[in-house]
Amino acid sequence: PVLGDVLLPVYAARSLSYTLVQPRTTTTTNPPGRWTELVDRRSGAVLAATNAVRFLDGTMTGVHDIRTIDSGTAIDAMPYVPLTGSGGSTSITGADGSFSVNDAETWTASLRGDLVDVTNEAGTEGSLTLAAGAAEWAEPSATQAEIDAYIFQYRVREFGLRFAPDLEFLTSGLRTKVNVSVTCYSFYDGAVNFGIEGDGCNNPARIADANYHEWGHAFHEYSVLSGVVDGT
Fold first, then answer.
1. 16, 21, 105, 218: which could join 38 in a potential S-S bond, CB 3.0 to 4.6 Å?
2. Beta pairing, strands 55-65 & 98-102
3. Under 8 Å CB-to-CB from 147, ≥6 apart: which residues?
4. Taking 90 as the threshold, does the pLDDT of residue 230 lie above it?
5. pLDDT tens, residue by residue, 89-108
6. 39, 75, 212 from 160: Cα distances, Å
């Protein structure tokens, strides 16, 4: 749409002048925008623009066990978490957990990312609704096992990239299953699997070293150039 011509005040070199401009509205999808542009009548240059779309900005964090159960908790960024808007839009948090999305939609986050994909095998998977400012993963938005595994698996992936940046599963993602219906047990079968608490054992997904160990099996398997991995 084209609106009526207006005079745009321009202040330069300590003097004020007026330029005849034509306002026009345009839209963009990336970034989302509903723009009002002021176009110079003579040159056609865009002299100013404002966006009527408002954004929801913040940082996503997670409360997690530092290394194992009863080791204390810490709050750290949740990188590359997928976000879905109520209107079907999608986004993702940055490496530092930051996000900026159109606040015309209601946004929810899950822990099923492209790089770290965590599923809860014992019930409903974690889901977090974004609000202004910080968005924090903590129970009951997800089980502690889901949150811990997401952070630990992301950290060990970063470790692996230092040595084998082109290794396939480091760029295509690794499935992580938590609260699997076994006790005192974790294993790798193409995905990393962690059992539940019980029979005198803690939930292994909440233990950093257990996450690193099972991830190591994937690293070994994908590193093989010929032959097979020794099952022992």
1. 21
2. antiparallel
3. 62, 63, 64, 111, 126, 137, 138, 139
4. no
5. 899 999 999 999 988 889 99
6. 51, 23, 10
Query: Given a cut of 60, is residue 2 above it in pLDDT?
Result: no
Q: How far is CA 202 from the centre of its chain?
A: 28
In this predicted model, what pLDDT tens digit does every residue of 69-82 receive, in sequence order? 999 999 999 999 99
With 0-12 / 13-18 / 19 or more C-beta atoms within 10 angstroms meaning exposed / middle / buried, residue 226 is exposed
For residue 153, the model assigns a pLDDT of 98
Q: Are 150 and 63 in contact (CB under 8 A)?
A: no
| Angstrom distance (rounded) from CA 198 to CA 149 | 18
Closest CA to 36 of 27, 45, 44: 27
DSSP code per residue over the chain:
-B---EEEEEEETTEEEEEEEEEEEEEEETTEEEEEEEEETTT--EEEEEE---EEEEEEEEEEESSSTTS-EEEEE-TT-EEEETTS-EEE--TTSEEEEETTS-EEE-SB-SSEEEEETTSPPP-EE--SS-EEE-TTSS-HHHHHHHHHHHHHHHHHHTT-TT-HHHHH-EEEEES-S-BS-EEESSSEEE-BSBTTB--GGG-HHHHHHHHHHHHHHHH-SSS-----
The pLDDT tens digits for 25-54 are: 888 876 667 788 889 888 989 988 887 666
